[in-house]
Structures are given as C-alpha cells and as structure tokens.
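Tokens in:
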C-alpha cells in the first residue's frame, strides 16, 4: 500500500500547484460579467489552466493570466506583441453563454515565443461548462449543472459540484470532494482521490492508485497502475487493480473487489446483497459481521480456520462451503496463489 500512498501524494502535489498557479498574481486582463446572467461557459486554450468557480461573494468576472511557455514572466508590452502576431484571444458573451477561446494564428516555430494563457472565471452556481485545454490543469467548484472538461496536460480538481460531471485527463491526478449525482472521471497519468461524494460514481486510472473515503451510492473504481484504499463506503462498490494491493475498511455495502498484483484486506461492517473477493497473487484477509446471516464459498491454497459459532457446512484446508447464522448474503473469495484468513467481529 506504500506505493498507492506515494502515487496519491504525487497526484496531490500536481493538484496543489494547479490551485496555487495564479495565486497572488495580477491578471493580464479582467472582464466583468456583472451585467450578464451567465448560464453556460465554454473555454478552449492550448497551453494554460482553467478555473471556474461559483463561490458566493465573488463578483462575476473573467480573469486572464499570461506568461511565457517556459514559465518566464513577460511585460505587458511583450504579451501584447505576441498576442498581435501569434494568437487570437476572444472573450465574448452571447445571450447567457460565455466563450473564452484562444487560438494560434499559425504554427509557432520558436517555442520560446509561445505563451501559456490561463482563465479564472467566477460565475453563478447554476452554470454548465465545456472546458478544454492541452497544457494545464482544470479546477471547478461550487457549480450545479452539466460539467464537461478535458485536459491532456494537467490534473483535475473538483469540489462541491452537483449534476452531470464528466472529466478526462491523460496528464495528471484527480481529486474530487463533496460532489454528487453523476460523476465520471478518467485519467491515464495519475492517482485518484474521492472523498465525501454520493451518487453514481465512475473512476478510472491507468497511472496511479485509488483512495476512496466516505462515498455513498453505486461506485465503480478501477486502476491498472496502483493500489486501492477505501474507507466507509455505503451502497455498492465494484473495484479492481492490476497494479497493487487493496485495503478496504468500514465497508457497509455490496462489494466486488479483485487484484492481480497483491493482497486484499476487507473489513465488512455489513455485507450488502453480496461480497465477492479475488486475489490472483496474494492473500485475502476478511473481517465479517458475526451476527449477520451469510452463505460462504471460500477457496485458496489454505483457508485458516478461526473459532466461531453459527457455522454449518464443510471446512477443510483449501475450501469452505456453508452457512453462518442460518445463511443469507453470498460471500465468495478466491485466493488462487495465497491463503484466506477469516475473522468474525
């Protein structure tokens, strides 16, 4: 699990830098939206970050931050020269739709002449977004609506969103907190941390670990590049990894968990409709509620027997099949190259 923690730590550093990138900086350009009732935001930039906030108390506005693509600060005169020669920067409001679009006029042969153009946007909470960048992170908070956002060059940071949430990145980690309804987030370049969320949640990464905490609903969370840590899950959790072990605590849900690259630990407060555990190259440790009716089907190189009351069935060294407390929710576990340890609490 140390690998999972490290990957999630590295992902969090990406997200911290995203949040601090434009702190205490003076925007190159500010456009007021005080007279516009914005209901949708469309942003496109090829080398900069995007932030959209519905935080109360902020004046509706667009802030534009520009710097050299190598991180070097530029004078306003130099920025204007490069904009005139190489870029089209358009910020417009049509009806209730805000558009902030950056395009290059031609191929910029000298990378030193290219710039990073980022947007920080403050709008009412009831706003839908369509955000795209290939060169920076995306941050959204305090919004209610349909949110679509994509980057291939940075992390995603989401807080206090509700509605249809659809985000993609191939170049950074993902952090989602305090959000609800339909959440669909994918990265191929970092870990994913999800905390205090509920609804229909889909999380996928091929480049890092998963950390899940205080989630409720139908949760699908998969990784091929790290371990899985989960704590206090309600509803249904389907999770898998081919890149690490699993540590699942305080589970009060239906659970389907599988790993092909490590051991699996599952602590069940209550088994929902089912419990299914699979570890191809490690041990399985299970803690089950002592008073719940269960149907057991456990198979491994060795199944270690612990003394408990209420079991009826067959228990040998490699296979257990029987009922606990008269039977109930099905519990299956398969450790093809390891042992299974069962405790009842």
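Residues out:
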């Amino acid at each position: 699990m140390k690998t999972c923690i490290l990957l999630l730590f590295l992902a969090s550093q990406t997200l911290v830098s995203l949040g601090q990138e434009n702190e205490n900086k003076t925007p190159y350009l500010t456009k007021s939206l005080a007279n516009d009732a914005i209901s949708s935001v469309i942003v496109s930039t090829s080398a900069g970050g995007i932030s959209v906030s519905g935080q109360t108390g902020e004046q509706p506005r667009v802030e534009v931050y520009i710097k050299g693509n190598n991180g070097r600060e530029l004078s306003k005169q130099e920025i204007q020269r490069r904009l005139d020669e190489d870029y089209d920067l358009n910020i417009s409001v049509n009806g209730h739709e805000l558009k902030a679009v950056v395009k290059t006029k031609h191929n910029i042969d000298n990378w030193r002449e290219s710039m990073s153009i980022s947007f920080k946007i403050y709008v009412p909470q009831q706003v839908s977004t369509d955000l795209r960048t290939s060169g920076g992170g995306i941050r959204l908070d305090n919004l209610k609506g349909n949110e679509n956002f994509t980057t291939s060059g940075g992390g995603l940071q989401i807080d206090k969103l509700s509605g249809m949430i659809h985000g993609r990145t191939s170049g950074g980690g993902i952090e989602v907190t305090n959000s609800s309804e339909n959440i669909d987030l994918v990265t191929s370049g970092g870990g994913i941390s999800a905390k205090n969320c509920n609804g229909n949640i889909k999380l996928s990464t091929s480049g890092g670990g998963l950390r899940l905490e205080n989630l409720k609903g139908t949760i699908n969370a998969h990784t091929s590049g790290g371990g899985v840590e989960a704590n206090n899950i309600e509803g249904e959790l389907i999770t898998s990894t081919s890149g690490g072990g699993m540590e699942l605590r305080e589970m009060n849900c239906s659970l389907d968990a599988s790993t092909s690259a490590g051991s699996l630990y599952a602590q069940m407060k209550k088994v929902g409709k089912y419990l299914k555990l699979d570890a191809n190259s490690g041990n399985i440790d299970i803690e089950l509620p002592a008073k719940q009716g269960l149907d057991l089907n456990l198979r491994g190189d060795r199944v270690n027997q612990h003394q408990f009351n209420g079991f009826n069935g067959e228990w040998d060294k490699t296979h257990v099949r029987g009922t606990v407390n008269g039977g109930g929710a099905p519990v299956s576990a398969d450790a093809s190259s390891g042992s299974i340890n069962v405790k009842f609490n």
